[in-house]
Amino acid sequence: AAALIGCPLAEAAEAEGYSRYLEEAEKSSENSLHVVYINTSLKTKALAQHQVPTITCTSSNVVQTILQSSSQLEGDLSVFYGPDAYMGANIAEMLARLAQMTDEEVQKVHPKHDASSIKNLLSRFRYYGDGICVVHDMFGAEVADTIERCYSDAYLTAHFEVPGEMFGLALRASHRGGRGVIGSTQNILDFILSKVQESVSHDLSSERLQFVLGTESGMITSVVNSVQDLLRQAGSPVEVEIVFPVNSSAVVTGVQDAAPAMPSGLNVVPGVAQGEGCGMEGGCASCPYMKMNSLDSLLGVLDMLRGGGKDSDAVLQQLEPRKYSETVGGKTFAEVGTVPILHMRHFQKNKELSGELVADILTRGRGN
Question: What is the pLDDT of residues 356-365, one digit of tens each?
Fold first, then answer.
């Protein structure tokens, strides 16, 4: 297609400011590692790897990636995370809280760390401050205030990418008798199912559980389906309510300021401010970029192919993804940009950094 489908968060890592951010690590005489969110372009990964030893991460493995890398380099490592500013700030807050815990509590999170090593890591942790996910940006101060006032007894969940107010609520709840969780969408789903299973196992027939869902709206269906399956299989009468908070500016009320008169005394029906229940002002917090990859879009491509007849190949050529022709350090973006991904795959399989990545860090840093 002529128009490229983008993402503001991914594009933030392609800005000149991001390259300048990595220059601190590139020019440093210290051992440095760049941990970059997987939802960035191959171009970003290639240029970053050329500047600084780089490993990709997901929201579910970012914390362990950072903890293990610091441990494996025996604390002699500066970590540069990007491009998501909220996730970076939330990781910093989580490390600050860990640093205040006992060594035994810290070692439940990572066995090779203690409070002292976490303090050292925190002092050498950096994050990029100018990248945000437009969807998670919707879970700001107003939503957090509403949750505190109206859902004080609910379980709180928050994705690593939400603003600090929502993240802080869920983080504090997680330390208050397991009343909350922070992490990836899978972490959130597992937490909800574990709490529901706990109530089912205890045969609490009058139990009514409330969960505040602080992440993208696409997760609602999987949560509801999973909870319903669990309750049906157990034949349990336990009630579960999934609360999805929205910003008030995204809700149309019955009375609108400066609104034109409606015919025949009709009033505006209260509801969401934009179509399909999704408003960029904070409606259902639905990612417009991910929603471009839908079943309807796929069927549309198939219809185009059927309509193209013998020229179907020509139709497909119009839809080819962007291909990079640029090189860095004499190698293609594909050659260099896949290196951080392979480093992450090694970490996921072996729970430690690869020898190749450690050698790269030491060669480019003070270990040389």
Answer: 999 999 999 7
